[in-house]
Specification:
Number of helices of chain A: 7
Distance between the termini of chain A: 37 Å
Number of strands of chain A: 28
Strand content of chain A: 25-35%
Helix content of chain A: 10-25%
Largest sheet of chain A: 6 strands, mixed
Oligomer: homodimer
Chain lengths: 412, 412
């Protein structure tokens, strides 16, 4: 029985992922932390804002003094001081019947509990102001700690930092943050038939596409690609190159060997790497097979198909989840999804998981888009270029009828 | 009448955008082209693949020779040669009744029109093979140009390059691509109340958050942030800093001046910059106001609010669309959206466009998620950290009832 018959489903892969652990962590400044994954629970070291601030240009007051005032019967308050933006009002006194001129961002006096907008006032002589619209306590100001209380939980380990998260950390004075390291991924294309993309292939040869696409996929997933070029189908050279590449990397992607013979060859190379163990010899996923997984300690070694489109789908299904695990997130696909309606019947082979390339056509009235398969053989890039996403069909499902609900994974 | 009363809707901004044009273009290698926007129509210079290739390990044949064969009555073919992966079969002859051993990726002989998988064959002596499953023409092979025909339209100007696009270009030998330049965006935070994020603010002062958040937003949108630090509320210094920053940049973001007085000040500075014209003195969008737009030639000058959360929303609504225009895309928001159902009534003020921070809660059975507003004043970061997206409510709408369809912009 050859391996094509014993290919396991992709769940075999994910079950092997539990033996891998997240990478080491490092400290990065906020300016480089967007998209990075927090490595430890973060709590707020202080209150944000650190003091009560005015949100408006106007007058700091005691709200009770404005009760019931109106255009015709304004509240008349004595102006006893002024607080500029960035100036501290905490030492200024404010008694009943008094107001202090304050600018947006200014620190309120302790006794003030609201700010009257300047638009709702009129000057009434040298040191007095007429307020003609009442305010409630806390109006037009933020309390100390209203944005974030001291000790509040900010982010748990595994949280991916977005722009607003960086803003909150900056406001709290957390200028560097401990995050999981970016996985270094060595990428080696194998095959006697390959020449670099900038060369004109002689008869029988083609250009190496996977070095470009796999590097871009690694980068998109948050990893650091280490392109290692092309290796011919030579056992000793491939073994030496792989062993050397793994020294510098957390993961190795070997593409090529889509065929029976070449696949055995790839597996033999992966098995011969010092300290390596084959975990999964192949999976029945279409496209994307044959994908081989081996490990050397916590380093993952993937054998991906040679066809660029198949390698791309294989990467999204198997490699990307492990990169996410390395970075402290769950080993999920992590791709954005959209709900869609199948625009025509979609066939699939029972016994293998399929990722059908689909185009999405918007429909009116807020209805989900129509998903229609893109024609073309699975190894080709053109159909993937015309596709918006992949529609996964389970191993035990023979296909989908027209008009059915479906979830489409958007291609990154 | 002060400017708060004369604020236009954000459409005023977009209508001003038509006076701006895309930036210059540059040539980048494929390895750096992911996410970049194509600057000119690209057509295929050649066929991909350049020749008919085998997709399987097996035998190149004339399909007619396998017609009607089966396990019990196999077709017997003479094996007249072998083609390895990367080897050219174009000079090999293949007559009726003949087969040539071929490996995945090998170039088919001219006379072959199909490949039989090795799994569907048995060796029958030294130079013969028994085929026990018929193939149709084009089975298990790709034709020359089947992935991409010579002269085929690849991408139009304005197309943002994805991973599979890079793969197609690499396969066709297009090793560099002409793309629109990344906009250089100078970022200046203004205000006497600001200290850098790594300092402990003295009484009345707060940390500068916008330098971090706006730089991250620029980067996310595909631009190059040029952080220029903090400028106190000093007309001459601000004018000098802005003028200098614009020398190196395609766009200037000035944050601060959320108040009446400060806003006038910002506008005066922007108006005083040599060659500058104020296009829009403010907009009635909540949060995000006051956002000012000026221009100096094709350079855009934005005055954004000082509150980090408001500046962030203002950036997404006004700045990001113009960055997209600079990069050859339409001046649209360009944010991913999800359909959601309002989880409770959402109030909004008629006469201003609102972007309500919402949290999304998944529902079962493939139903859209529930969108519920996140409580908290609009200038605060905490609520934005707890939010998944923004729910836009139009200027003429007083709010949304519970259970209504809504489109939510996902925060990047």
């Amino acid at each position: 029985m050859n391996d094509f018959c014993s290919q396991g489903p992709p769940t075999e892969f994910s079950s092997q992922f539990i033996d891998f652990v997240p990478l080491a962590t490092e400290s990065v400044p906020l300016a480089q932390a967007r998209g990075r994954v927090v490595a430890e629970l973060l709590a707020s070291p202080e209150a944000l804002p650190p003091f009560a601030r005015s949100l408006m240009d106007g007058y700091a007051v005691q709200a009770a003094d404005t009760l019931g005032c109106s255009e015709s019967t304004p509240a008349l308050l004595n102006v006893v001081g002024e607080i500029a933006a960035g100036a501290s009002g905490r030492t200024l006194g404010l008694g009943p019947g008094q107001a202090i001129r304050i600018w947006t961002g200014g620190e309120l006096p302790k006794e003030a509990d609201a700010v009257v907008m300047v638009e709702h006032t009129r000057l009434a002589g040298q040191d007095a102001v007429a307020v003609f619209r009442p305010v409630a306590p806390a109006d037009n100001m933020v309390q100390a700690g209203e944005d974030c209380a001291p000790g509040a939980l900010l982010f748990e380990a595994g949280h991916r930092l977005r722009v607003q998260d960086l803003g909150l950390l900056a406001g709290l004075g957390i200028a560097t943050v401990q995050v999981f390291c970016r996985p270094r991924v060595a990428i080696l294309s194998t095959g006697d038939e390959l020449v670099p993309p900038d060369q004109t292939p002689p008869p029988g040869k083609i250009r190496n596409v996977n070095s470009i696409t796999l590097a871009a996929l690694v980068e998109e997933a948050g990893g650091l690609p280490l392109p290692c070029g092309i290796c011919p189908d030579d056992f000793d050279r491939m073994l030496a190159l792989c062993t050397e590449a793994l020294d510098q990397a957390d993961m190795l992607l070997l593409s090529g060997g889509s065929s029976l013979g070449r696949r055995d060859f790839t597996r033999q190379v992966l098995a011969a790497i010092p300290g390596s163990t084959i975990l999964v010899p192949g999976v029945s996923v279409h496209p994307g097979k044959p994908a081989i997984l081996a490990r050397q300690g916590n380093k993952a070694l993937f054998g991906l198909p040679g066809h660029a489109a198949s390698a791309l789908v294989g990467f999204l299904c198997f490699v990307r989840p492990l990169l996410r695990l390395y970075m402290g997130q769950g080993p999920s696909l992590g791709l954005p999804t959209v709900r869609a309606i199948t625009g025509q019947p979609i066939f699939s082979m029972v016994g293998r998981e399929e990722y059908v390339r689909v185009r999405l056509t918007p429909q009116g009235d807020g209805a989900p888009p129509l998903a229609t398969p893109v024609a073309g053989k699975t190894g080709l890039l053109g159909p993937l270029v015309r596709a918006h996403g992949l529609l996964p069909i389970g191993r035990d499902v023979g296909g989908l009828d027209e008009g059915m609900d479906a979830t489409v994974l958007l291609l990154p």
